[in-house]
Amino acid sequence: MIDTHCHLDLLRREDLEETLRDGSLEYLLTVGYDRKTVENAVRIARENDRVYCAVGFHPHEADRVSLEDIEWLRDIVLKNPKVRAIGETGLDFYKDYSDRKKQEEVFRWQINLARELGLPLVIHMRSAEEETIRILKEEKAYEVGGIMHCFTGSYETMRKAVDLGFYISYSGILTYKNAGNVREVAKRTPTARILLETDAPFLTPQPVRGKPNRPSYIWYTAKVLAELLPNSSLEDVDRMTSENAKLILNLGNNGRKETITYVINNKLYINLTNKCNLHCAFCQRERERDFMVKGYWVWVSRDPSVEEVVREIGDPTRYEEVVFCGYGEPTLRFSALKEIAKYVKSRGGKVRVDTNGLMFTFLPKEKLKELKGLVDVWSVSLNAPDRETYNRVCRPVQPDAFEKVVDFIKTALREGFEVVVSAVDYPGVDMKKTEELVKRLGAKWKYRHYEVVG
Fold it and tell me: 67-79 vs 100-117: helix axis angle to the nearest 10?
């Protein structure tokens, strides 16, 4: 697990010693917010292999910050390679410990410093959502991106921040009884952009509230997040948030390790190909070339062979099911899919294929019969209740693609396959009408949140 925001210099001595011994914490980002704590953060990071730091001036400090301080900060960064972000910086219009105009000025200075140095930002935002997003846009913060620290904002603000290249970090607040709104936003946050933090020694999670917070308590927040996200175990949340942190903070291998098979919630997924015959507007591969799925970089430089996939599967009964699913369309490799499914079924495994349902645009219907007894479940992404919506959202090449998908669903049902049909609540998709269509077809229905991938 990676704690992306803590203040190690503010911990009690015994808590700091316990934190530095804790093998479950892969990396920690300790954060400085004024001259003294910046120096402390740099020192602790220098002395401990697993600790990195962010340095900046908190909005509460803005009245005391000058351009001379920004030059001092630049010098600190240039001399210390373990500095991985600028911040925490931002706006706090809740307590107003500093003049609002001065907060904005110091915020802009630090955004420009981050752009100059090529480092991400760590953003403090309290009672200033509209102003924060406006300044991030005006100062071109999207060039470096960063982390929205201890996020408690609205869904709309979360979306705007993600669109600007920022990651959304959730703290122990996620566990609080009165934080229902925060949990609702977390459910709909793109899984490739979620981070976890403690803000230790502050914001202690609910089960241990009343004690000073410490990084090891991050697991309480992780457990709640695992309960919120569909198809997610605690292990998945650990891997997902840690690999996301490595990407934005440039830690370890940055998460970009090619993946043929990957495990989520005791299901084995097979990344059979990168190729896809749709260009869906909601897909991460289309919008950002971001192939991260719950901590796995789901991309390969070439299509894997049947032998390679079988070798990675091993004993399929170890998993709840084996799922053909990546950022490509598995039926495009029909022969390989068939051979691998045959292997899985011969050894007692269960097979599901996640498909866009366009198989009949390049193969005759009769080919579907060849998969009887080999594929247990077809999970079909329909994503629209009609041709017009489908063409706008899924952007197929074929003008009759929507009808082809509906025909695939009907044919699969007639052949006796179990069929689950899903849609993503992308803007402009009438989910109720889509569900009604699916039920008329006789298939099972699955509602999917936009960008909650995996």
Answer: 30
Both tokens assigned to 353: 């294929």
Residue ranges in the chain whose pLDDT is less than 50: none
CA 400 to CA 396: how far, in whole Å? 9
Structure token pair of residue 320: 């709840």
Strand bridging mode 418-424 / 377-381: parallel
pLDDT score at 427 = 92
Which CATH number characterizes residue 203's domain? 3.20.20.140
DSSP designation for 212? P
Rounded distance between C-alpha atoms, residue 381 and residue 372, angstroms:
20
Q: What is the DSSP letter of 176?
A: S
CA dihedral 307, 192, 221, 268 (to 10 degrees): -20
Helix (H) or strand (E) holding 308: helix 306-313
Q: Locate all alpha helices (DSSP H) within 328-386, ordered by sequence.
A: 334-346
Residues 239 and 293 both lie in one domain: no
Residue 250 has a pLDDT of 87
How many whole angstroms separate alpha carbon 263 and alpha carbon 48? 32
Distance in angstroms (rounded) separating the CA atoms of residues 315 and 319: 8
Range of the domain at 197: 2-249
* pLDDT for the residue numbered 255: 56
Q: Indicate whether 453 belongs to any domain.
A: no
CA atoms within 13 Å, Cβ hemisphere of 182 = 19
How far, CA to CA in Å, does 356 sit from each of 219, 276, 379, 423? 36, 9, 8, 11
Same structural domain for residues 291 and 399? yes
List the beta bridge partners of residue 146. 121, 166
Same domain, 296 and 381: yes
- Dump pLDDT digits (tens) for 362-377: 999 999 999 999 999 9
